[in-house]
Structure formats: C-alpha cells, structure tokens
Amino acid sequence: MSESTTSKMITLKSSDGVVFVVPETVAKQSITISHIMEDISTITFIPLLNVGAPTLALVIEYCKKHVEAADMSNTETTEDGSSPMPASSRISDDELWNWDKQFIDVDQETLFNLMMAADYLHIQGLLDVACHKVADMIKGKNPEEIRRTFNIKNDLTPEEEEEIRCENLWAFE
C-alpha cells in the first residue's frame, strides 16, 4: 500500500474558503506546509490565505502526481534483488517531465497564479516548470512582442529605451 493512502489527512483551506482534504504526503510537497507541520505537530488544518481554490486544486493535482511518481520509483526490492513493481508501471523522469509540461499548458492567468502559489508554498518543481513555460513564451521575441504577450505597457521614453539597449547590448545580439 502506498504511503499516500496510509498517512494522516491534512485539511487545506483556500483564500476563498474552499476546503481540500489531502494526504499528509501530498501536503508535505510544500516546504511551507511541511515547516508549519514541523512547528505544530498536531496541526491538521492549514489556511492558505494567498491561494484561491482553482489554483489550489491544480497545486494539489501536481503534488499528488509527484507523490505517486515517487512512490512508484521508490519501491523496495525483494530479497532476491527484484522489484515487486513491474518496470512498466513505474514513471520515468522523462514521462514525469512530459506530464509536467502538459499540466502547465494553461492560460496565462492560471500560469501566473500557479507560479505565485508555487513560490508562496515553496514547491520548487512546480515553480521550475512554470518558469520554464514563461521562458518559452519569451524565447525569440523582441521587446515589443514580449510586451504584447504579457500585456506590459511601455512606459519608457525613447531616450530611456536607447540607454537600456546600450547598457545591455549582449541581450540584443
């Protein structure tokens, strides 16, 4: 039986009041939650004031997948050195990375909400995959295209823009 099905349950409450009950192993994918649980060992209810319900649901989905993947790859071997789980049912790093890339293929608002939640909750893997997605959105674009992509107003004067270009020539090569 996997650890995630035998661990105690933790209640997470989103900023908009929606309650999620998750296995402790899933909640502990967040360093923030893990530290709270270490500080107060009897805690089973954690309000997350900076994460809305739709985003928290996605964060939990990400954490569950990564706990499952870890459970599948950390199977113990039997006395003869074989694994009780067939290799075909384990998740490879490449398969997990592909799942992560599909998972993070969301609209821009959701992407930024996931980044903020991953940063707040200290879930480095989720933050990394979200930042990678943003980097891919920027790659190969000029400043004006980047502004359009992220709806950024250009509040620089032409002189300020030229000064920045001169100071950072390497970025425009």
- The N- and C-terminal alpha carbons lie at a distance of 55 Å
CATH homologous superfamily identity of the domain at 3-74 and 91-139: Potassium Channel Kv1.1, Chain A
Main structural class: mainly alpha
At CATH level 2, the architecture of the domain at 3-74 and 91-139 is 2-Layer Sandwich
The 3D shape can be described as: elongated
GO biological process, one term: jasmonic acid mediated signaling pathway
Keywords: Ubl conjugation pathway
Domain SKP1 component POZ: 8-67
Pathway: Protein modification; protein ubiquitination
What does this protein structure show overall?
Belongs to the SKP1 family. This is SKP1-like protein. Pathway: Protein modification; protein ubiquitination. There is one protein chain. Helix content is 55%, strand content 8%. By secondary structure, it is mainly alpha-helical. The protein has a domain at 3-74 and 91-139: Potassium Channel Kv1.1, Chain A, CATH 3.30.710. A 3-stranded mixed β-sheet has the order 2-1-3. It contains 9 helices and 3 strands.
Could you give a short description of this structure?
The protein contains 9 helices and 3 strands, in the order αββααβαααααα. With 173 residues, the protein is mainly α. It has a 3-stranded mixed sheet with strand order 2-1-3.
Q: Layout of helices and strands, plus pairs?
A:
Blueprint: H1 3-6, E1 9-13, E2 19-23, H2 24-27, H3 31-39, E3 45-47, H4 53-73, H5 93-103, H6 108-121, H7 124-138, H8 143-150, H9 158-167
Parallel strand pairs: 1-3
Antiparallel strand pairs: 1-2
